[in-house]
Design brief:
Strand content: 15-25%
Helix content: 40-55%
Mean pLDDT: 87
Oligomer: single chain
Number of helices: 17
Shape: elongated
Low-confidence stretches: 1-39
Number of domains: 2
Radius of gyration: 33 Å
């Protein structure tokens, strides 16, 4: 059993302490005390180079390109239909996504997508923890972008800390002005980019440029811009640690076999400088590979020390892996002191047991199967759905009328749904009761405009004593497509 201390870290075995220094020698600063010397205030991460940083730059560019360019992609749907590939059309009440068109009556598809996304996040958590948070989450993507601007204008971590402590100067004020101006420009672009998904993108962009857009559109741009500017510029690590519910949820479903960022303490402890470690090893005493350089802490966008154990705030971005590997390479030591490793393997390493990575295990197989089943089910439902529909409402008062000739008549209201963009004409049919006859109150065939619904009243007359189920159907006179609905025929009292 492994317990999770969600307030801070998972407890690890006590560290071995380095031998006491010789009299007169300078006592090294303990690791915890050194870490405590980090400046207070917002986290100021240092830039780093490495494979995970390259992956993050690639995903950042890809996510921003998709977000900014997707509204401008075109998709031909036919006459009278919008040609924007992805569009949330509130006027018609439609959601367009390439070849898929979702009506308000089909919001269960959106529910299915939310369930699918939840299962996918749980699957990612079982494989690699909060890897979504570290690479693909919008908060992470926009924070990385804002940090890149900050480094470009103010310099790297050491320069920013120095300038923050030095106070305001004309040059400092100018730098802050440039930085915040760029941040605001990115935030406004973000707000405008989101609004483009709710109307024809080129036209909406022209309206923004000429001042012809609606007050509602400008208001939403302002709201999204303010949120982006605040969350990515000032509340970075607070969002990932305290505002987002996923750290708490992933802590509850934490898997010790997941490949998360971990510190191999059985190799790194006891910590000490490279020179001291060489002296201890020459004397046959234990010495770890960690030189307590704090690079893993300095590059962390959340500001945690991964060496203290798995922390619920860690977003598994891998930047500390890049920082540690670069230090190990310079020292000529093996890389991987901090790595994507399962907690189970950390425990195996402490007890010198054989290690094994179990990415494929019952939990991941089950979640992958659930993803396949959910995706296949939604795909099958989408493939089999029709471009129309029919609902029937029986008259309530009176439910049946006895005619002078003895026959009985029931009345019904038929609502015909036409999901196609063209006008369609339908013929009304009934089945289920012998000798029953249907009559449409109004013009026949029934004409329904494209992308709309129409109601038509229908009376059904049957001989006295007739009673039972009725099946109504409307048939497209051009294509033969039929839509049906069931109701009952009731006798007169």
């Amino acid at each position: 059993m492994v317990s999770l201390d969600i307030s801070h870290t998972r407890h690890r075995a006590p560290r071995q302490e380095a031998p006491a220094p010789q009299p007169g020698a300078r006592r090294p600063i303990p690791a915890r005390k050194a870490a405590g010397r980090r400046p207070s205030g917002p986290v100021v991460p240092q830039s780093v180079k490495g494979r995970f940083r390259r992956i993050k730059w690639t995903t950042l560019a890809l996510c921003l390109a998709i977000y900014g360019l997707l509204p401008f992609l075109r998709w031909t749907r036919g006459p009278g239909e919008p040609d924007q590939a992805v569009l949330f059309d509130f006027v018609k009440g439609r959601l367009y996504f390439f070849f898929v068109e979702i009506w308000p009556q089909e919001l269960y598809y959106v529910t299915g997508l939310l369930v699918l996304a939840s299962v996918f996040l749980i699957f990612l958590n079982a494989v690699a923890g909060r890897v979504w948070c570290g690479f693909l989450c919008p908060q992470t993507v926009w924070t990385d972008l804002f940090l890149a601007v900050e480094r470009l204008v103010e310099g790297d971590r050491r320069d920013r800390l120095r300038k923050r402590e030095a106070g305001l100067t004309p040059r400092r004020v100018a730098e802050l002005g440039v930085k915040h101006a760029i941040w605001l420009a990115i935030a406004i672009w973000t707000g405008a980019g989101l609004v483009l998904y709710f109307g024809d993108a080129p036209q909406t962009l022209r309206e923004f440029a000429t001042g012809e857009a609606s007050l509602l559109a400008y208001s939403w741009v302002g709201i999204i811009a303010a949120l982006t500017y605040t969350l990515a510029g000032f509340a970075r690590e607070q969002v990932c640690t305290w505002m987002c519910p996923w750290p708490r949820l992933q802590g509850a479903i934490w898997d010790p076999e997941a490949l998360t960022v971990n510190y191999r303490d059985y190799r790194g402890e006891p910590r000490g400088s490279a020179k001291k470690a060489a002296e201890l090893r020459a004397a046959g005493e234990p010495a770890g590979d960690c030189v307590d350089c704090l690079q893993c802490v300095n590059v962390c966008p959340i500001g945690i020390d991964i060496r203290e154990g798995p922390n619920f705030a860690c977003i598994n971005c891998g930047l500390c892996v890049d920082a540690c590997d670069s230090v190990m390479t310079k020292l000529g030591r093996p890389t991987g002191l901090i790595a994507y490793e399962s907690w189970r393997n950390i425990e195996r390493g402490r007890s010198r047991e054989p290690q094994a990575r179990r990415v494929i295990r019952p939990k991941t197989v089950g979640l992958a199967a659930a993803l396949v089943v959910l995706s296949g089910g939604m795909g099958a439902v989408l493939a089999s759905r029709t471009m129309g529909g029919l609902t029937v409402l029986h008259d309530r008062n009176p439910v049946a009328v006895r005619l002078s000739g003895g026959a009985v008549r029931n009345g019904y209201m038929l609502r015909i749904l036409n999901k196609e963009g063209r006008l369609r004409s339908f013929a009304v049919r009934i089945a289920g009761i012998a000798e029953a006859k249907a009559a449409v109150v109004g013009p026949e065939p029934v004409v329904v405009d494209g992308d709309s619904t129409a109601e038509v009243r229908v009376t059904v007359t049957a001989p006295a004593g007739s009673e039972g189920a009725l099946r109504f159907s409307v048939v497209d006179r051009e294509t033969g497509a039929a839509y049906a609905a069931d109701d009952v025929f009731l006798p007169a009292p």
